[in-house]
């Protein structure tokens, strides 16, 4: 067994078939395993030579995406079976659709696995959970599937909201029992507060940078404003999971932004770690806030 093979991460548990199997930020090589289908990302523009012979023996399909390519560019087939359609994977027993042709991401952010597990563990049947910047709704599906929470998935993209509905169906949850909102998170949070609509939990996982017709958002500059709006719709005894994917802020600076924004009495604030297979990475900042 070669040195790099010794550094492969085993599956986190028997109910998870998608995880970061290889993580070498120093060399600029990252491999995500989607139930035997590998997605290799590299900092360099060439596929790693040491992987060419070994990988086909260990994965049914191998796709590759250099990180210098545009975010919406789909990965290139490299070895094994060509994937012509979407397929499903499991994370902590919750299923989700994966589509390598989707470009930006395949359908799930694997670095959020432990955060999704925490959300599911903190939900009870009937809890109202707001999942902002919902993407394909895996947070929502985990909450609804595991505990019977009533989720609201909010995203700008109708494509992703439709994907979220399909993920619910994949887990035998009727999408009609859940809620979906299309539009800007800031505008919806203001609308919820004006209507007096509150939630037991709110998930914040915004893009590092975004722009609409009226304004721009940057996590290192504007997160306090987002936290303020989110705190206004959290019911007493509720919580916020706040995440930021950025190297621009330290974990301490991120916590400070949240504290500035919340302006409510809290019982605890805790920084959360990334999954252990993402060793050496610190880009994802996650903070859990419990309210009085």
Note down, in words, how this protein is organized.
The chain is α/β, with parallel strands linked by helices. The protein folds into two domains: 3-84, Transcription Regulator spoIIAA, CATH 3.30.750.80; 109-291, Vaccinia Virus protein VP39 (Rossmann fold, 3-Layer(aba) Sandwich). Helix content is 27%, strand content 32%. It has a seven-stranded mixed β-sheet with strand order 10-9-8-11-14-16-15, with helices on both faces. Strands 1-2-3-4-5 form a five-stranded mixed β-sheet, with no helix packed on it. The longest helix is centred in the middle third of the chain and has 13 residues, at 158-170. It is globular, with a radius of gyration of 19 Å. It starts with a helix and ends with a strand. The relative contact order is 0.11. The model has no long low-confidence stretch (mean pLDDT 93).
